[in-house]
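Entry 14. Structure prediction run on the chain below.
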Amino acid sequence: MRTQVGIVGAGPAGLMLAHLLHLRGIDSVVVDLRTREDIEHTIKAGVLEQSTVDLMTETGVGDRLRREGSVHHGINLAFGGALHRIDFAALTNGRAVTVYPQHEVLTDLIARRLADGGDLRFGVSGTRVEGISGDRPSIRFTHEGSEQRVECDFVVGADGSHSTTRALIPGRADLFREYPFAWFGILAEAPPSSGELIYAHSDRGFALISTRSPTVQRLYFQCDPHTDPGDWPDDRIWEELSARVAGAGAVVKTGPVFQKSVLRFRSFVCEPMQHGRLFLAGDAAHTVPPTGQKGLNLAVADVYLLDRALAAYYERRDTSLLDGYTATALRRVWRAQHFSWWMTSMLHRFDGTNDFDVRRQLAELDLVTGSASAATTLAENYVGLPLTP
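Output returned:
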């Protein structure tokens, strides 16, 4: 079969791009090795920037987000025996973030794509992309026992951090940083501990008091990357989380823990993000530590650019935006990398941390919460920059 844009990966980048292209009348086919059930039931946190929320709303996939998402107008930094609030609304002219899990975003995009008659192929195997250096690339895969080939004008690799499409870019630079710690994350049946997220700096290490819904909470604490979740019964988890925020006066509300996991940290950027008729988007091109809440939002920013670049090609045969995709996307990617690294380095305990390092971190946190300009820098980056036109 033939389509205009072949998309490998039904994550935030792939599904949002297919949706945006459909609104322009550009055909696409999306393939993913996971089943629809796997995609919609793999629970992942989500903090959506203002621009992501606005784009979903403007393009008709934000109704449930608006009903069920929790709008946050600030965050709290816990350090030095107190909570210090960063007021997003005051510092960014009313902008905010919305807590809405990533798998719910995917559920909404899948439902809309199918309602629009979109071609989504779940549970495929043996996916391989061919011919990206020519003008007729193709995607081969097996679906429901049948070998298939989709011929395209362009291929978008949106197949996540373990991307196979990325390997097709010759001479690429894989730039990365491994962090010496991880996050121990839980989902628990409990009421919210705070109306807004708490980022805690403590002698025991970092903790994040986040949320998912009025009855289910997501919380994290810094741990060794080799930590075995099985070694942590519920009581021990709650004691550790409470110890890391109690000094700032916060109280963690407890309940049954029904999911435990260890999330390892890595910063990664692939340069360039394109070759021939192949373009990378989302985690296939870059990953960030979760401290800055940028992963899903960067994926949306990538496909926002690709949507406009592909529209320029099909409407006017103008390739300038496609040619400049990497340079334009990487400006935002590297700014998000810096912000995520900055938040991470300011709040976590690193191997070999001594009293000097701790006092330096506290001084930085004091600057961020005591200076309007420093607080504005954090707030503007956290709620997200406007999408590049």
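The chain has a mean pLDDT of 96.
Filed with the rest of this week's runs.
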